[in-house]
Design brief:
The chain is mostly helical. The protein has 22 helices and two strands. The radius of gyration is 22 Å and the shape is globular.
Length: about 400
């Protein structure tokens, strides 16, 4: 059998970079993923997530590591196969929230990287100056000026190139990923179905593979991930199958079918009701998307719809009131989008807000302290034009 790490030493790792400098340590970490010791494998995986995928960033070594990660996932003798595949997908797409619920916009991504590569530094500086001047409020002007002053075109261009290279490295390996849909390990089939949804340029063969999987699959989590990925790949030929699962008895595939149908522009009352239920009381199951958060995915899917009934918006707020810490940030942003649709330019008196808006502000103001101690929530509120301090927000909402 072919060694999945064959050619590892042929790569000039020392000449590539990761978050902490030279990537000379990456080969040893990749080899440790084949260790018989679980602790050693987990430590190596943690190091790789920290170095070649640091806080969502990708580097010169990221794309170079992808073929070996995919080879490990495809190796039936490897002691751990799912996490190398999940790491490869993370290297391809970065943070999922940047792409959901619509999926990866590959064409616009490539256009932006091409623009950065062709951009003259002086022309980019003028563009940023104009962007700051177009700000609609003083707060927005300050935020934009801060971003402009810290902008380094060479660094941004280099990172954008590294990110797209990692994405294309995984795209090149998708035939091997599609083959994993037939693996005996259900967890690996979940990971493979999840991975395929991020590559719309490969939608044809991937949708064919997902459709064949759905013909034979009985495991609910595998079915659910295949349905969501089919939606992300614009799989309209699978609409009848999605509607059949929406009417089915299995909670996770039913919820996943609603997510996919919403993505395909087929969100009828039944779809909205299923998403609302997922936002308030999600299925008791882990999903690969969004760190296992059916609640967050439901909220994002609802927030992307043109019109959402009050009971569905209330369900998102019910779910938000049951979250805390980091998970509360994107759910709060989805709730703000449902309530306000666009940032507030001039903050009106609280009494002048709509019922949905008032309840949204009160729910956010009532989040526990472990949500408010991070800058993420304050930044989100600032972008939406709402009071960004906890006490200030509570006072605005009339909470003692």
């Amino acid at each position: 059998m072919t060694d999945p790490l064959a050619g590892l030493d042929d790569v000039d790792w020392a000449g590539l970079d990761h978050a902490y400098g030279s990537a000379a340590d990456v080969p040893a970490l990749l080899r440790s993923l084949r260790s018989a010791g679980e602790d050693e494998r987990e430590a190596a995986l943690g190091e790789l997530f920290t170095t070649i995928y640091h806080q969502g960033g990708r580097y010169g070594a990221s794309a170079a590591a992808v073929p070996f990660l995919l080879a490990l996932a495809a190796d039936p003798t490897a002691p751990e196969r799912t996490w190398p595949l999940y790491l490869a997908v993370a290297l391809a797409i970065g943070f999922e929230e940047a792409h959901l619920p619509s999926g990866v916009e590959a064409a616009s991504w490539r256009d932006e990287v091409a623009r950065l590569r062709a951009t003259d530094p002086e022309a980019e500086a003028r563009r940023l100056d104009a962007w700051v001047a177009e700000a609609e409020s003083e707060r927005q002007r300050r935020d934009r000026a801060f971003d402009r002053d810290g902008f380094d075109l060479a660094r941004v261009r280099r990172r954008a190139t590294d990110e797209l290279a990692a994405y294309d490295a995984v795209r090149a390996g998708l035939p091997a990923v599609r083959a994993l849909l037939g693996d005996r390990d259900a967890g690996l089939r979940v990971a493979a179905a999840y991975a395929l949804g991020w590559f719309p340029e490969e939608a044809g063969p991937s949708l064919a593979a997902l459709g064949a999987l759905l013909d034979r699959e009985a495991d609910p989590p595998v079915i659910a991930h295949a349905l969501i990925s089919a939606g992300l790949l614009d799989g309209r030929a699978l609409l009848p199958r999605l509607r059949a699962h929406l009417a089915g008895a299995e909670p996770l595939p039913r919820w996943a079918a609603a997510v996919a149908l919403a993505r395909l522009g087929a969100a009828d009352a039944r779809v909205v009701a299923e998403l609302a239920a997922g936002a308030a009381s999600p299925p008791d199951a882990h999903i690969a998307f969004l760190d296992g958060g059916p609640r967050l995915y439901s909220a994002l899917a609802l927030a992307a719809l043109d019109e959402v009934p009050e009971e569905a918006a209330d369900a998102v707020l019910d779910g938000l009131s049951r979250t805390s810490g980091e998970m509360s940030f994107p759910v709060a942003e989805a709730a703000l989008r449902l309530a306000f649709r666009a940032p507030v330019r001039t903050l009106p008196p609280f009494a002048d807000l709509t019922r949905r808006q008032r309840r949204t502000v009160r729910t956010i103001a009532g989040l526990p302290a472990d949500s408010w101690r991070w800058g993420n929530l304050l930044e989100i509120l600032g972008v939406w034009g709402l009071p960004a301090g906890h006490d200030e927000c509570r006072r605005y909402a009339g909470i003692a």
